[in-house]
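A reminder before we start the practical. When you read a complex entry, don't treat the lines as separate problems. The point of joint prediction is that each chain is placed relative to the others, so the output describes one connected object in space. Small molecules and nucleic acid strands, if listed, are placed in the same frame. In the example below there are two entries. Take a minute to note the order of the lines before looking further.
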Amino acid sequence: MSELKVPTMAEMMASGQQPDVLFWVGCAGSFDDRAKKITRAFVKILNNVGINFAVLGTEESCTGDPAKRAGNEFLFQMQAMGNIQVLNAYEVKSIVTTCPHCFNTLKNEYPELGGNYEVKHHSQFLQELINEGKLTVEGGVFKGKKITFHDPCYLGRANDVYEAPRSLIEKLDAELVEMKRCKSNGLCCGAGGAQMFKEAEKGNKEINIERTEEALEIQPNIIATGCPFCMTMMTDGVKLKEKSTEVQVFDLAELIAQAKNL
Amino acid sequence: MEISSIIFMVLLIAAGGLFAKNLKTIIRNIKLGKDLDRNDNKAERFSLMARVALGQSKMVVRPFAGFLHIVVYVGFIIINIEVLEIVLDGILGTHRLFSFLGGFYHFLIAAFEGLALLVLVACVIFLIRRNVLRIKRFFGKEMTAWPKTDANLILITEILLMSAFLIMNAADTQLQVLGSAHYTNVGSFPISRQLMGAFAGMSESSLIMLERGTWWFHIIGIFAFLNYLPYSKHFHILLAFPNVFYSKLVPKGQLDNLASVKKEVEMMFDPSADPYAAPAEPQGEPQRFGAKDVTDLTWKQLMDAYTCTECGRCTDVCPANITGKALSPRKIMMDTRDRLEEVGKGMDKNGKDFTDNKSLLRDYISEEELLACTSCNACVQACPVNNDPLSIIVDLRRFLIMEESKAPAEWTGIFTNIENNGAPWQFAQADRLNWKNEQ
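Here is the predicted structure of the whole assembly.
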């Protein structure tokens, strides 16, 4: 397997280069074992297409999203202003991220604090590459497979991005099947609002089980998503329902990488 | 001037005056909220209001209830033309003032009658949905005795008003047939004439009694209903319009950056700031971080509360509520309104600086409810009048975390980790690029 080419901003700057886009990896993408696979899959695509990108590497820090949603505005703004100093010092103009939470925060909440960037979720970025003809996807591997897309709240409702992920799935030659609650009516996986980092409050069911059951109802081969937290929740849900052999959970980037045999 | 005209004028002025007074109190209460500028992008705001409030676009997401609601809503608006005639008749002592319109008046009466019947049927179906079919979203812990009664009272009142209107017209038609002096032939009355049979045997004087009786019942009912609005969820028929107009226009995922925090953080990042400098004289009241009570919320959040129709679409789609957690976005809105009413009444009684040592947080909304929210925006998306329950939840959370340092232990952990190593988990920032060389 070939090595991933992952230049950092610091390296680029040292050699007098400027990347076209910064890949914001995010905390989950950097540290969570499952999400790291998404990160690697996305980088494989970037390498394959030959995108001139860089990451911040060890200079990246949490966007502050979970702190903000939990109510810790102070910590959020500390993180934001720290990150903005780094991003502005590197004169970053354009950012792509595989995490809808980072996407939402960087795109919507950083500008007022002095961080103005063109921010894209990787589903939008990949769709553009396809539209521009830079990325071609053959659907062979997924032909005849049923794929459903679980809308991450921070991509869908929060930012009205519903079509880019679906257009990617359609490129796979697979059958896109929708859950009863989808798009603007999609049900949360249960991880948002910093719930990911604490036990759920007392109730009669876990939210990810409710969502997984809904997905399993339509008997997909694959549950696709575009968020590392949704990934955790849906994967756990499928495991708990003992369906891991029949149903797999993949990120959009992984599906594209698989289709391209990367 | 006839005595009936005088009585009518007195009633009209009393009803209008009382309503104006109640409206003023509500506006005063809403203005207890903090400043917020929502006067930008006027064109977009008008267009949003046209679609969501006037056009009911979010109501029809649930087609059956949405369709019936449109029937009642269109009925309400169109029948108001008839109410205008009734009011003018009442003042001038005339009978069917607009009948000079001739053929067009026939058409208007036919339209009013058709709509009245449709409204009546829709309200009966709504009553059945609430009380017989007992649709789940009309229940829930916040739907205590009063909200349930309120909903039924509204529907029953509308049924009574529409019935009075149709009976009045039926008696009028019968009187026209009898050739009664004042009751000249003014239209075909397509719906109410079906009721004529029931009154066929009645004498002219009884018919006049019935016609006048239902006329007075109908208009006094409307005056009473007008003054019931300020105490009811039915107030949404007025506030839905400004409430949608002043909606949040930025993406739903975007939360505001607290200005009070921004100042502090900017100072910490300012290399020229003197850490030993005496702090500037505080100006005005010290600002709270987040919200503890209704007066810490913005006027828009308070307007949201008065606009809430208690339809429960928010709670019905809330992932926390669906899975049995304590959170119900509708309860957040209803609690905010109840608490605001309480604060308003306290001020009326004891002056502006009154305190009752109660607050929205804890006395109304518990920590458990707040902590259950996933901030998924499903409630915001579902609200037919563009309320934003999530913003209230976040503001209350901010107070819990920043003023009281009251966070669940796991959250305290992620805060510490983010501060120390720039990630919610305890991994060293130096390891952030390790994925590059892993398989």
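Discuss with your neighbour: Chain A touches chain B through 75 residues (CB under 8 Å). What might explain this?
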